[in-house]
Amino acid sequence: MESITSERCDTSNLATLQKRVQEKLQNERYLLVLDDVWNQDQNKWYQLRAVLECGSKGASILVTTRDSSIASFMRTRDSTHELSNLSDDDCWSLFKQRAFPSDAEVSEELEEIGREIVNKCGGLPLAAQALGSFLQSKSDEKQWLAVKEGELWNLQGENLILSALRLSYFSLTPPSRRCFAFCAIFPKDKVINKEELTHLWMANGFISSREKLEIEDVGTKIWNELYHKSLFQEVTTDHDGCIRFKMHDLVHDLAQSVAEKECSVMKRDGDIINLPSSTHHISYIGDSLIFNKKDLKNVESLRTFLNLNYFSTLDFEKGHSLKELHGLNLCQRELSIKGLECVGNVDEAKGVNLIRKKELRVLSLSWGDDDSESEIKGVGVDAEQVIEALKPHSNLMKLEVYGYKGSHFPSWMKDVSCIKNLVSLNLEFCKKCVQLPTLGKLASLEKLEIWGMDCVQYMDDDESYDGVEVKAFISLKTLSLWDMPNLERLLKRERGVMFPSLHKLYISNCPELTLPCLPSIEELEICYSGEELVKSISSLRGVKSLKIAGCSKLPSQLKSLDALESLELRNCDEVECIPEQVMEGLCSLRCLNIIGCRAFKCLPEAIQHFTSIEILRIWWCPILEERCKEGSGEDWHKIQHIPNIDIRRGWRS
């Protein structure tokens, strides 16, 4: 989902994620690359493939793996393509990039030795990279000859690569070696957060401040050293500046080798009793965690216990208890509690004492989809009492609530001081709630997503605010409203300063909603909502991207969107044409997409005078496809000047 949208995904709910992926890929021609696959669970692949089968003809999935059995069950073609080793020239290119950075001048002697080293690599790219990184800081010809004539060439394949990597490891300083060995605490193929890793190094005393360098700077320096030695790869930086990376699985083998038994990865609760006494650092990657203190008696030297779940998860449907969270320090900063309809005691919820967990940044609270089961069991406690008892610390930055059964939200969600640092809020299928909290006063809130709240009429109906002038949602940048049949307006009293920072607005199945003037909006998506809503967007003069789906009529008011650069009409089955006056008003239009509009009969005459249009897509519009046929179509003369035309024929149901 993050790859599709280029944004951080704000939910861990599998059903929601599957729905969103299908909505984004529906009838799209896409290329998905699943690189370096090691998971041998065929059922997971079949589940993923079912989600991805919504694409159009030509949608493709490319899988790379070094496990032939995985290639066998994942493939849909009769044969797989086996990659051969790199040529000597390609290997030299990789080696040269590492050994001679910044296009430094290469002496003839070193180049000759370097090429002989590369020729011995047997076309293995990681070996070439590792040796290049090792020799980068060495200008003495004797050191290069020592590598060329060394014993490592007596090895083959992965053993050769490991020996090359081991050279890089032994060239590190002692602190850097300790920091690298600690990385064995992570499972293979784990995406590692650079900042979190540095903090773990600090906590274990592997690094300390030096003369003019703060301890964080020392950590960054060591991380950079490991990266330049080819021990870290696939480095990415997100929009928040957060750096993440991976280790090649052979590099991970090296880390495990040098760490010996000091680091261990636990996959099941019971694994802890089998750990050697020399274990210092443990990570856990199971679904949920339960063990007794006595289980730790064999690992008296334990210094680090790391829960590597994206969320620390407690699921009552699996028989767990809220008592398991009592006294827990959440160094992972993220907590998901599922199956809250099964909580049998309010005092148990109070005992969690989330308000004392200052490190908690992300909290997800989830009730089951069907409350009849808990009623039959006779264990369900009133949802309003449970959520009231789960009040978090005010440091919380992201809150998700799924399937909440109460009619009213808790008092702590209505008290601005309790959630003053909230940046992201996701409320899904809280169908019985009649009113939302006073969200407009949350000065830090940047992203708000609301799904399936049938009873709500206004996003915020608090009329007090700051006296006469309303200042609502001053920091909100992205707003998504889905399946809210009775939502009429965003605010009960729409006046004053409203949504001054809102750039992205997504609305689906909100038939009663109309919009106020929102001058800052640049990206707007309206799906299966009322005609009045479409009419009301005429005041959004700053919109640059507009997507409309399931609309029965295009109102003339759209002509006022003179800043619009991209327009997409999707599944508008009753729309026959873009009105001439609307087309004439869209003077900035660069991209026009008409997708799945079966009744569309023709293009407006005005389009032939638009020199700004660069892209025209007409997909699965049978009548329009014939009219736009190159050379012979009745509308071809209107569009022949457009440089990029993509017409897909036929119809996907």
UniProtKB/TrEMBL annotation:
<dbReference type="InterPro" id="IPR056789">
    <property type="entry name" value="LRR_R13L1-DRL21"/>
</dbReference>
<dbReference type="Pfam" id="PF23559">
    <property type="entry name" value="WHD_DRP"/>
</dbReference>
<dbReference type="InterPro" id="IPR036388">
    <property type="entry name" value="WH-like_DNA-bd_sf"/>
</dbReference>
<feature type="domain" description="R13L1/DRL21-like LRR repeat region">
    <location>
        <begin position="322"/>
        <end position="453"/>
    </location>
</feature>
<feature type="domain" description="Disease resistance protein winged helix">
    <location>
        <begin position="185"/>
        <end position="255"/>
    </location>
</feature>
<dbReference type="GO" id="GO:0006952">
    <property type="term" value="P:defense response"/>
</dbReference>
<dbReference type="InterPro" id="IPR032675">
    <property type="entry name" value="LRR_dom_sf"/>
</dbReference>
<dbReference type="GO" id="GO:0043531">
    <property type="term" value="F:ADP binding"/>
</dbReference>
<dbReference type="Pfam" id="PF00931">
    <property type="entry name" value="NB-ARC"/>
</dbReference>
<dbReference type="InterPro" id="IPR027417">
    <property type="entry name" value="P-loop_NTPase"/>
</dbReference>
<feature type="domain" description="NB-ARC">
    <location>
        <begin position="11"/>
        <end position="104"/>
    </location>
</feature>
<keyword id="KW-0433">Leucine-rich repeat</keyword>
<protein>
    <submittedName>
        <fullName>Putative disease resistance protein RGA1</fullName>
    </submittedName>
</protein>
<keyword id="KW-0611">Plant defense</keyword>
<dbReference type="InterPro" id="IPR002182">
    <property type="entry name" value="NB-ARC"/>
</dbReference>
<dbReference type="InterPro" id="IPR058922">
    <property type="entry name" value="WHD_DRP"/>
</dbReference>
<dbReference type="InterPro" id="IPR042197">
    <property type="entry name" value="Apaf_helical"/>
</dbReference>
<dbReference type="Pfam" id="PF25019">
    <property type="entry name" value="LRR_R13L1-DRL21"/>
</dbReference>
<keyword id="KW-0677">Repeat</keyword>
